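Aim 2 progress update. The chain analyzed this quarter is reproduced below.
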Amino acid sequence: MNLRRTLLLLGAAVLACCLSGLPAIAAPEMTVESWYSGIPAPEPILPRRPLSLSWNPPDKVFWLAGESPEPARDASGNIVSASAWGTAGSRQQVFRRGGVTLTMVPLIRAEAGWHADAEAQPKLGAAILQELAVPLPAGLRFNAKTGFGDPIGLSAPNPAGVTGLAFRGEAGLSGSLRPLGDAQTRFDLHLVTTRLLSRGIDETASSSSCELTLQLTRLAMAPLHIGATCPGLDGERRITFNIGGRF
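Predicted structure tokens:
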């Protein structure tokens, strides 16, 4: 009981740090011109960056991370809903040879949602992951991550609120496009899948997810991000393109 209370306090502290700045931005931003005319300033083209915190020491043995996205507002600019999450974990390297590493990552994760018409809904979960990193020829690098935990700890989709065991698997390949004659461009190909393993869950898109992403980056150019659901997955299909940059 004391451990659970400690974890809840830790998660609440992380989430409180994320949400602490929300009331200060409840009013819409005003410019000098809009102050005289009484018209609110137009919304920015790019969405505001989420409030975030991160602590990751050089040895990376223990880390903290949290984030609170831009809250939803009504026509008057008042906040009607908000959310935040926080994660704390540690890394324990169990194997290293010739550039190949295997690391154990136990973690706890807290998330909370708030709506003007309902009470806050804090949730807490835990998971344990294994990370494998393997260097490949031509400067390529392969990374894989697998783990088990509850849906909250693994960020797995769980619309029905089912409690039980969940699985998360990731695989990635990164490096430069030097073999294709473009050494200045780097790529990161990433596959992420999650699945609820509890009994009594229908095999639907709501109980599992799979996403494939590709990111291309080049010096002095905005990165290109492409994401899509995995082929053969039931449910909604989507493909997203994003060219990011802030000036």
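Residues 1-10, 14-38 have pLDDT under 50 and may be disordered. The chain is about 10% helix and 50% strand. These observations will guide the mutagenesis experiments scheduled for the next reporting period.
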